Amino acid sequence: MSTAIKEIKKTRPVKPLDPEKIKQELLAKYPPKVARKRSKQILVNKKDEDGKIPSIGANVRTVPGIITQRGCSYAGCKGVILGPTRDIVNITHGPIGCGFYSWLTRRNQTRPASDQDDNFMTYCFSTDMQDEDIVFGGEKKLKSAIQEAYDAFKPKAISIFSTCPVGLIGDDVHAVAREMKEKLGINIFGFSCEGYRGVSQSAGHHIANNGIFTHVVGKDDTIKDADYKINLLGEYNIGGDGFEIDRILDACGISVVSTFSGNSTYDQFANSHTADLNTVMCHRSINYVADMMELKYGIPWIKINFIGAKSTAKSLRKIAAYFDEPALIKKVEMVIEREMPEVEAVSEDVKKRCEGKVAMLFVGGSRAHHYQELFREIGMKTVSAGYEFAHRDDYEGRAVIPDIKIDADSRNIEELDIEKDPEKYRPRKTPEEMASLANKGVPFKKYDGMMPEMAEGSLIIDDVSQYETELLLKIYKPDIYCAGIKEKYAIQKSGIPMKQLHSYDSGGPYAGFKGAINFYKEIDRMVNSNVWRFLEAPWQSHPELSAKYVWE
Fold first, then answer.
1. Which residues pair with 485 in a beta bridge?
2. DSSP annotation of 386
3. What is the residue range of 109's domain?
4. Where exactly are the transmembrane stretches of this chain (predicted)?
């Protein structure tokens, strides 16, 4: 165990920490060229004289040799976006390790309507490429795998995901998909989502959005019999989050046509263009579909957040305000009034033990932003946060999108040319209605990002490294650190509680009102547990032999 780790759990500094000095300490041991690059990705959240937040370096390649927590493009496409869909057979074309790694690692839950409905999520489909397939090509093996899956399950659709070796040897998964689609008579489509395509899993999200939009969305024009129809975008039903959100929306009389992609189905995707409103939770992973559906079908979108009780109430009110129906507005207020007393009672109780404690959040998607609301509700402060795979607009807000330069890595990802559908385009609101709603607090296509909502002087770090993590723990000595799967055990060995927000481990749901209660209790249990003081063995606290590392 390193000296830095040993020192982490000593008393937190009484004097206020200078974030600029901390930034310089984080950069001190990097070579000059690396330090210059990392300095653009490590910022002190401080507005300038004009009230503008600083510009952060994001969506850039990780420096070779730095231990990053990122995933690959394949993981973002197959594991994140398509993984939660239960009735599409998702075949990984590549070595078995890729397919196995992306299989249910996020604890996506699903709930088929009956035992007769397909659910393939419990299966790991892979072509299991071997050495000879790399040498001679794997297209024949892929065709055989598609045929085998069709014969065994008779699915509505089959999707194919390319891994790194597939791109390197040149297997054409799209040609195979077209051939087998014609042969079998079902929808079969492929994704060029090789792990090296793009700088992180974010590239895979974009590729998956393009593929689903091209091959599935708009295939079913059936109009659902409901008064208020929405799509829930960027919600993946991790630990049952989607079930809690559905419970709340059902109580309000709001009908979900499709979820992208928690507890989702092929038919939901195909029918999603019939909704009246798109609501976006995870901005990074799904904003592409929201924009394309607005251009092609006329469905506007708003940013919402069901993480945190207050955010849930605010989001419900925004949805009700969009439909502008007194009956819906009244029902939403009734649901909020019914749910909030229990939430407030638990939060007030937990706040007695958690108020003033310090948290850090480094996790992908919008979670490093959204979960700060839950910590605020129990009186905890987030001193540092960042994303694994964000772009500048996730940090600074969508207003900066016109200023973002397109680099070579981003050009690897196809940009679809979207036009109004001549038959299905139907503007849900007139420009005048949109403007009126925006004036009433329902802005469209707007996301202000994480940084404007964080405290002055907090440290924002994009693509945090393991070395930086250890140093942050030593300096800040936080009461809890929230991140993903890879860094979990390294954090816990330092004596810091680690809340895994990538897949929740065994917890959840944490969305909505009931989810907020679950989270309050979980954090209370973790930060106030005595187990962490027993982490150090007696011979570590009172060694009979001592030594120093060569660099000390």
1. none
2. E
3. 73-195
4. none
Q: Which residues pair with 506 in a beta bridge?
A: none
For 91, phi then psi, to 5°, come to: -100, 120
Q: Is 191 helix (H, G, I), strand (E, B) or coil?
A: strand
Token representation of residue 304? 């919402």
Supply 14's token pair: 């009484």
The answer, yes or no, to whether the previous bond of 200 is cis (omega within 30 of 0) is no
DSSP string over 170-187: T--HHHHHHHHHHHH-SE
> Of 38, 70, 93, 106, which is the active-site residue?
106
Query: Which is catalytic among the residues 197, 205, 369, 370?
Result: 205
Strands 42-44 and 125-126, how do they pair? unpaired
Is residue 205 annotated as part of the catalytic site, yes or no?
A: yes
How is 326-362 classified by DSSP, letter by letter? HHHHHHHHHHHHHHHHHHHHHHHHHHHHHTT-EEEEE
Q: Any catalytic annotation for residue 70?
A: no
Q: What are phi and psi of 268, to 5 degrees?
A: -60, -45
- pLDDT more than 90, % of the chain: 83
Are the C-beta atoms of 532 and 496 separated by less than 8 Å? Answer: yes
Four-point Cα dihedral 219, 221, 222, 223, nearest 10: 130
Q: 223-275 pLDDT, tens per residue?
A: 999 999 999 999 999 999 999 999 999 999 999 999 999 999 999 999 999 99
Measured in degrees and rounded to the nearest 5, phi and psi for residue 60 equal: -120, 160
Between CA 300 and CA 522 the distance in angstroms is 36
Helix (H) or strand (E) run with residue 234 in it: strand 229-235
Distance in angstroms (rounded) separating the CA atoms of residues 261 and 283 = 13
Residue 106 is a catalytic residue? yes
Which pairs from 53-56 meet CB under 8 Å and 24+ separation? 53/396, 53/451, 53/452, 54/451, 55/392, 55/396, 55/400, 56/392, 56/395, 56/396, 56/451, 56/460, 56/462
Looking at the whole model, is its pTM more than 0.85? yes
Residue 164: how many other CB atoms lie within 10 Å: 17
Tokens 């039903």 sit at which residue? 237
User: Are the CB atoms for 216 and 210 separated by under 8 Å?
Assistant: no
Residues whose CB is less than 8 angstroms from the CB of residue 148 and which lie 6 or more positions away in sequence, other chains included? none
Name the token pair of 224: 């659902």
CATH for 112: 3.40.50.1980
Give the number of domains in the chain.
Answer: 1
319-350 pLDDT, tens digit per residue, is 999 999 999 999 999 999 999 999 999 999 99
- Does the residue 552 lie in any domain? no
User: Using an 8 Å Cβ cutoff, are 396 and 55 in contact?
Assistant: yes
| Chain centre distance of CA 498 | 18
User: Does a structural domain hold residue 53?
Assistant: no
Query: Annotated catalytic residue: which of 38, 58, 70, 72?
Result: 72
89 lies in some domain: yes
DSSP 8-state class, residue 274: G
Q: Which is the catalytic residue, given 38, 58, 70, 75? A: 75
Q: How far apart are CA 160 and CA 174, in angstroms?
A: 8
Q: Is 345 a catalytic residue?
A: no
Distance CA 367, CA 450 (A): 10
